[in-house]
Amino acid sequence: MRKMLFVSSMFFLFFLCSSCDEEGNGDCFEISYGQIFTAEVGDKFCLPDGSEVKIEQLNNMLCPCNVMCSWEGEIVAQLTFTFNEEILEYEYHAEVDDWNAELPNDLLIQDHAFELESECTEANPSPKVKSVDLEIRKI
User: What is the distance between the alpha carbons of residues 1 and 3, in angstroms, rounded to a whole number?
Assistant: First the structure.
């Protein structure tokens, strides 16, 4: 009985470990500088130099559908960077210059696309942001 329990426990542990995301390092997805990656709220990404970026919030600041606006708006991402154990909270604005003095001088962030959780309708004129495609580059 003990042997069967041991074997079934080992099988369960093997199954549990094999179902883990192979790209991730625990909860941290490995990415490279210059790589475009899709990010959702709560995702954490690890860069080759040990730096990390966590997606805290994605906010839809776009002009609501069926409304005439003088400005189309933007997607805003609340990010937390960790550089050499120093934590930096950063707010990325998609429509503003890609470089910001708050980040280290050699970093640029660029967005490429975004996905909303639902279609923009009269009933839901400003749907939540599901994901955004970002790129972090060293210059």
Answer: 5
Burial class (CB in 10 A: 0-12, 13-18, 19+), 78: middle
d(CA 101, CA 109): 12
pTM here is: 0.75
What's the pLDDT score for residue 87?
A: 93
- Can you tell me the mean pLDDT for 38-65? 95
Report which of 125, 81, 85, 126 is spatially closest to residue 104, judged by C-alpha positions. Answer: 81
d(CA 51, CA 71): 35
Q: For residue 72, is it within any domain?
A: yes
In the chain, the number of structural domains is: 1
* Whether 88 contacts 109, CB under 8 Å: no
Return the pLDDT at 99.
55
The pLDDT score that the predictor gives to residue 84 is 86
Give the position of tokens 């625990």: 26
Q: Is 54 inside any structural domain?
A: yes
In the structure encoding, which two tokens stand for residue 118, read together?
């639902």
